[in-house]
Each structure stands twice: as structure tokens, then as C-alpha cells.
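User: Quick sanity check before I run a bigger batch. Here is a single chain. Can you write out its predicted 3D structure?
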Amino acid sequence: MTPFSFWQTGMQFYQLGVEAQSVVTMRVLGAAGLWNVLPDENARMISEKQQAFSESAFAAGRAALSGHAPEKVVNAALRPLRLKTRSNVRRLSKRGPKAVG
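Assistant: Done. Predicted structure follows.
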């Protein structure tokens, strides 16, 4: 453990929050017809959570049972969630807002 271990974990939480809020914003705009989203976006936002959270729980469990420090257990739990939010931000932001007119 270093003095920056908890800071790094905090930054992972911060980035997860920013990415998740960006995804929510783009999906709400998509539901309102203001953002280009694929027709399966509503189904995707439900199904992806199940997989991401189960991967997160298993990763945290593996890290805890391996005797890792608490911040490493938390980081292991955050990693699958961050991968999903990061990929969603990239995918949705590439589609962009709908053109008016």
C-alpha cells in the first residue's frame, strides 16, 4: 500500500460517476429523440448491468479471498464497471446528437 492507494481508488470512483452520468444523459436524450441511439439501447442498458455487476462481484470476491488489501478489492470490483461505462461513453458519444430538420 502506498500513500496514493486510496487516492487512486477515489479517482476510480470519480471517473465511474462521471462516465455513468454521461451515459445516463445521452440515453435520456436518446429516449427523447435528441440523441442518435440504436433501437436496442433500452434493452442493452438493462442487460449490461447484470453482467457488469456479476463480474464486479466475482472480481471483488477473488481479490478478497486472495488476501489483497481493501483498496485492491475495491479496485477489482470497480474494474468491470469502469470498462462498461468507458465503452458506453465512447460508443454513445460517437453517435452524437440528432440533426434537427
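The chain has a mean pLDDT of 94.

User: Great, the batch can go ahead then.
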